[in-house]
Amino acid sequence: MSTPVKTKTFDPSAYGPWAVVVGGSEGVGAEIAFRLADAGVSSVLVARRPEPLAETAEAVRARGVECRVVSVDLTSEGATEEIWAACEGLDLGLVILNAGANTYGAEFVESDMARVQSVIDLNITSPLQLIRRFGPALKARGRGGIVVMGSMAGYLGHADMSIYSAAKAFSRVFVEGLWLEMREHGVDVVEVILGVTRTPAMIRAGLDMDLPGMTVSEPGEVAEEVLASIGNGPVHVCGGEGNQKGVEFSSGVNRGRVVAGAHKRMKALRGED
Ligand SMILES: NC(=O)c1ccc[n+]([C@@H]2O[C@H](COP(=O)([O-])OP(=O)(O)OC[C@H]3O[C@@H](n4cnc5c(N)ncnc54)[C@H](OP(=O)(O)O)[C@@H]3O)[C@@H](O)[C@H]2O)c1
């Protein structure tokens, strides 16, 4: 018998009173922290740059909950332990792993392996370490949630970002296994797949997000959908029918047609056509 599709909506009492939002200083992460605050959930926000972190924390506190910050680079030695220490003593029920990015675009055979490793560290090693650190406490607690941010890029290979797309594929398949394991212990796990989202990071990257026919989401609407999808794992595709169809196309069995077709579209997004 197949598992029935869950259609839970966000219920803070199932997770709170504290959450850690890794990558919580701006864009989607900050919008998640605001919505958690509005639901009465306090948060620990993690990011590198102290100023946006402090600003977002202030805005979270203004909504009537507590907020702690950790300014750390997730790819640095000891980052996981620093975040864990900042959460000491908190009844933490939600781990949101939002930080991630393609920090290095290069043709693989010409690439600098240290920078390749850094993409792997941010998108694979850090989420694994954090889940290994926080997971046992959620399991013992018998309720809670883990959200990992995925990407439509993780459904197929991409030129000049083959490591990032492979990392997001790894993340999705890993989360499916984790979902099976943790549901036995009352913990919800979900990989939320983002399509193109107008975050400050994407704006800074200078991508042309206004191509005809492209689905572009705003950080606030994505945050709303992330919170509503926590109980609907293992995978939730954000952004409605357009992105759903994109993921279905990207999962097609004629891989040459799929990968080459998406490559053309990606070149247009990067303004290379
Ligand atoms: N935006 C899109 O179109 C899109 C599409 C598909 C998937 N995604 C995925 O969605 C997630 C969020 O994407 P986004 O960057 O656009 O969103 P965002 O939520 O606007 O910001 C990312 C957050 O992560 C933090 N961060 C980034 N690198 C970090 C590091 N090395 N150490 C600590 N914190 C770090 C950033 O702060 P600092 O810079 O100060 O560290 C920021 O708080 C990522 O996992 C991304 O792969 C995004």
What does this structure look like?
This protein is α/β, with parallel strands linked by helices and 273 residues long. The protein has one domain (12-269): Rossmann fold (3-Layer(aba) Sandwich), CATH 3.40.50. 45% of the residues lie in helices and 15% in strands. It contains nine helices and seven strands. The protein has a seven-stranded parallel β-sheet, with helices on both faces. Residues 23-29, 47-49, 52, 73-75, 98-101, 122, 149, 151, 194, 196-197, 199-202 line the site of NADP nicotinamide-adenine-dinucleotide phosphate (NAP).
How would you state the average pLDDT, rounded?
93
Read across the widest sheet, the strand sequence of neighbours is 3-2-1-4-5-6-7
User: With helices defined by DSSP (H or I, 4 residues minimum), what is the helix count?
Assistant: 9
Please indicate the count of domains: 1
Percent helix range:
40-55%
Amount of beta strand: 15-25%
The beta-strand count equals 7
Structure summarized in a few sentences:
The chain is of the alpha/beta class and 273 residues long.
Please name the defining characteristics of this protein:
7 strands, binds NADP nicotinamide-adenine-dinucleotide phosphate, Rossmann fold, 7-stranded parallel sheet, alpha/beta, 9 helices, globular, disordered N terminus, 273 residues
Secondary structure topology:
Blueprint: E1 18-22, H1 27-38, E2 42-47, H2 50-61, E3 67-71, H3 79-86, E4 92-97, H4 113-141, E5 144-151, H5 162-183, E6 187-194, H6 200-205, H7 219-228, E7 235-237, H8 241-250, H9 255-269
Parallel strand pairs: 1-2, 1-4, 2-3, 4-5, 5-6, 6-7
